[in-house]
Known about the structure:
InterPro entries: Capsule_synth_CapA (IPR019079), CW_Biosynth-Accessory (IPR052169), Metallo-depent_PP-like (IPR029052). By secondary structure, the protein is of the alpha/beta class.
Amino acid sequence: xxxxxxxxxxxxxxxxxxxxxxxxxxxxxxxxxxxxxxxxxxxxxxxxxxxxxxxxxxxxxxxxxxxxxxxxxxxxxxxxxxxxxxxxxxxxxxxxxxxxxxxxxxxxxxxxxxxxxxxxxxxxxxxxxxxxxxxxxxxxxxxxxxxxxxxxxxxxxxxxxxxxxxxxxxxxxxxxxxxxxxxxxxxxxxxxxxxxxxxxxxxxxxxxxxxxxxxxxxxxxxxxxxxxxxxxxxxxxxxxxxxxxxxxxxxxxxxxxxxxxxxxxxxxxxxxxxxxxxxxxxxxxxxxxxxxxxxxxxxxxxxxxxxxxxxxxxxxxxxxxxxxxxxxxxxxxxxxxxxxxxxxxxxxxxxxxxxxxxxxxxxxxxxxxxxxxxxxxxxxxxxxxxxxxxxxxxxxxxxxxxxxxxxxxxxxxxxxxxxxxxxxx
Length: 425
């Protein structure tokens, strides 16, 4: 017999949809969603009402509140922008100690060229940012860690526009450290999705505007380290994954006037597993069917396969980006960036840019002294992973910048593979 969901989970689709609708319309909080919770701020990237003016990144949690840069007001709106999405970034543990020693250390220097070529840069931030008296990892619990406050500045210097905070490490040092994380990101001008000071804000999309083109970013987590998120106090602050509720939120964002694209970040699955879990598949496909332009998976710490659905890419796991993990080996070291050319009224053009973890940093394919070896290993890895997903695309030839197109991502019907393309089969 199918186990009955707890009351919190049965109410989740309605709750998620109500939060998303309220946030996007900029209206008052639904009466039955958490007594005493205030609506999200009308203006500024993930900032409280009394915060300083928004940064030039122009990200906002409420659709009506987004503001275009002053110099873009007279220009014709862009028909497309480029979003570069990275996988798991952990600024705790050894990386956190490095930032404590040298707060100006540039963790993202190796990918500066790729970042500079994008309009919007997104990563999954796999840690809190809090001052624990020099501690960046619990001495007796190695899976409990935090980045120092300087981590927010490192993200901002690199040009990261939006991070997802919807993940299983967002309560490692408790509520105080969680709220401190929001403070540091707001101070640095880095917008965040999937979390907030209220439930309404946590489920609200972040809207980023570039040259008149507006993309909504939603983030949710299906993993929580302290038991069920639905039954944990953090449910008021972190967005939990639920298929129908997420689909409703995507539809709401999609219908909002002025929103040109919707991107979903999902934290879930099983660590070091090649196969996407059925739950991840269901959530991803529901999000795409509801109107999402791309689905970005995090948490397994290894690459997982890519699907094209309705011409839109599903990245079940982007793998590690800037993260020192316990395990070693090619499967853990290989990750990828997803480069999405988001287009108004059309599916995105998708490219993948392999990266390789080395030491405390990452090496993009274009700068890899072992480029030929890494490229071959990456393609072999993707061929292996294709056995676990449907609608496998083909990877086109890699360009000088270390990125390759996903053939068929430009339209609902797959295009003919490029010459020398590697079919993921």
